[in-house]
Amino acid sequence: MDGKHTDSASPSRVVRYWRRAVPLGVAAAVAAGIGGGVDLVHRFQEDDDKPAKASAKQASDQQDTSGPRYVVGVRRTGTALVVREVKTGRDVGPPVAAPQGQRFRHIAAGGEGTYVVSAVTDRRKVVFNRLRLDSDGTPKDLAAIPNVTVDGTATAWSDLAVDRNGDRLASVTYRGQTGRVDVVSLATGERRSWTTRLPGRITNLSWAGSTLSFVWNPVRTVNGRPTVVSHQLRRLDTAGPAGDLRVSKAVMKLPKGSVSAILSHDGRTVVVGVGQGSELTLQTYSSATGQPAQVLWKRQQDATPARISPDATGHHLLAVGDDGRLYARGGAVPAQDFSDAAW
C-alpha cells in the first residue's frame, strides 16, 4: 500500500505489545448452535468486577458533562455485555449474556440508542446482534440480526463499525496474518469484501458517508517475531469495486506517539489519539494536507489511545486507553474488565 505524510512513529506501550504479539488463531470454540433467546445474567464474574468496583469512585470524581450517558462494554471473557454509567462508573442493570454457542467480540454504536455486537461461533463464522437500552440505560433486549454473517475468524485485532444511518456495518476478520474487510447491509445481508495479501493489522474502522477509513499497521518479521512497523490512516471507497484492499488511499502517516485515528463524518478532518510522556491528547488534522489543526482535549495521563470510538452522532469521542480506562472530554470510565466498548 502506498504512503503519504511520512512522519516517523515511535513505539508506545500498545506498539510494544504489538511487536511481541503472535497472530491469534481461531477464537475458542463454544457449544454448537445459536440460541434465539436472551438471558440476563444477574451475577458478575468476580475477576472481571474487582477492577471496576475499585475504580467507580474515581470515575465519579471525573465526570463527563457532555455526550452519551452510558458506555457498553464487552467482557474480556466474551460471555456478557455490561452497561456502565459515564458519570459514576457504576454498572446499570444486569449484564447481558451471550447467546448459546456465541462469544461476544466487538461492539459499535448502532444509532437510536442501540448497539451492534459481533460474536464468534464454533463454525468459523461471525454473527451479529443488536442490543437496545431503555431510557435509563437498563438493557432492554438483545436480538440476532438475521441473514448478516461473515465467514472467518474475528480476533482481538478485528474491528467493527456501523455507518451513521445504521444501514451497513464494516467488519475485519483474519486468515493468519492477513486481514479482510467486509461491508454488509444490515437490512439484506448483502456483502462486499476487500482482502490483502500483505501481513498487517486493520484497526480503528470509521465511516464518512460511503468512505470507510482504517488504520493500516503493516507487520514484518524482525528477529523471528511479527512486528508492527508503522501506522497509517487509509480510506476506502465502499461504493467502488470490491477486491484488493490496495484500492484504498493513504490519508496520513500517524504522528509520533499515535496508533489510533478516525475520519470525521464529513471526511474533512482526521482525529488522532496521541500518548506522549504523561499526556493523552485528541488532536485534529486536515485530511487534505495532514497538517495539525485543533486540540480537542488533553489529559495528564500516562496512557495511549488504542482506539477512538465515536458515538452515533459523531460529535462525541471516546478514547480507549491502553491502561484499562475509557477517556472522554470530561472524565474517565473504569474498563479493565472490557475488551471493547462503545457509547
Automatic annotation (TrEMBL):
Residues 47-68 are annotated as: Disordered. InterPro entries: 6-blade_b-propeller_TolB-like (IPR011042), Quino_amine_DH_bsu (IPR011044). Residues 53-66 have a biased composition (Low complexity). This is Uncharacterized protein. It comes from Actinomadura namibiensis.
